[in-house]
Amino acid sequence: MLILECPYCGVKGEETEFAGGGEAHLKRFGPGSSDDEFHGYLFSKVNPKGVHFERWRHAHGCGKWFHAARDTITLEVYGTYPAQTTEPPKDIKDKISAKRPGWSWREFA
């Protein structure tokens, strides 16, 4: 079971306290986008073995969306941070790099 901490209200709880919202840091395409862009946004998701960035909502608390960095193999949560951030904070990147040498942040299109 995942243990997450809401970066807004500070509540720490099991994943059942929160609601998953898919991959984080995606460029969203909606009205006015091409069919290929919208198709890619809806259906082309990565499902990595290892480090993954996800959107979560504090469903049974403050209701705010945030991002979580976690490992899909070990279920270790490297940290959480506000959803308005375009990339993980340096301390989370450093924590990931310490556990997974050679890991690097990928730019999201």
Automatic annotation (TrEMBL):
Domain of life: Bacteria
Listed Pfam families: SoxD
Listed GO MF terms: sarcosine oxidase activity
One GO biological process term: tetrahydrofolate metabolic process
InterPro entries: SoxD (IPR006279), SoxD_sf (IPR038561)
Gene3D superfamilies named in the record: Folate-binding superfamily
Name of this protein: Sarcosine oxidase subunit delta
